[in-house]
Design goal:
Layout lengths: L9 E8 L9 H4 L4 H11 L4 E6 L3 H11 L9 E7 L6 H9 L4 E5 L21 E4 L4 H12 L8
Parallel strand pairs: 1-2, 1-3, 3-4, 4-5
Length: 158
């Protein structure tokens, strides 16, 4: 049996390729909020929770952040939320990195990817996370944080 961990309430929220353009790109699909707006909303909704929201257009950087986020990594977070953007459909390196990290993990998509083009319906990320949220806009991030905070944090069998 694993010994209990002390939880700091720190959650890493990772955003992938092109998500730095939120609020300026396809507003009818992704909405008008920027990542800064989403960060502020999360910090206001979950005071006292360490929300660390990041974005990169470089897959290797994302992999390094995931490794560092592990409970035994350099940064040691309690949970991880990821919106991989277009990497969702082909980034096996992200899948493998997420699979190695033992903590609550949630995949988030602003749009309902299942109601869009066929190629958007396939995720190589989903098998390596605990939950997937899609189509809720920016509210999906709040739902993901709530999920991570409400978990008993025991690893679930796969």
């Amino acid at each position: 049996m694993n010994s209990p961990r002390t939880y700091s309430g720190r959650i890493l929220v990772l955003n992938g390729v092109n998500l730095g353009r939120l609020g300026r790109r396809r507003l009818e699909v992704y909405g008008g909020l920027t990542l800064d707006d989403i960060r502020s909303e999360l910090q206001e909704t979950f005071p006292g929770t360490g929300i660390d929201l990041r974005q990169t257009d470089h897959e290797g950087e994302m992999v390094a952040w995931i490794h560092a986020a592990a409970p035994d990594g350099e940064e040691g977070y309690d949970g991880l939320i990821i919106n991989p953007g277009a990497w969702t459909h082909y980034a096996y390196a992200l899948h493998d990195a997420l699979e190695m990290v033992e903590m609550p993990k949630v995949e988030v998509h602003l749009s309902n990817v299942h109601a869009r083009e066929g190629w958007r319906r396939e995720s190589v990320i989903s098998p390596s996370v605990d939950a997937v949220i899609a189509g809720m806009g920016a509210f999906g991030y709040r739902a993901a944080v709530s999920y991570v905070l409400s978990r008993d944090h025991a690893p679930e069998p796969r």
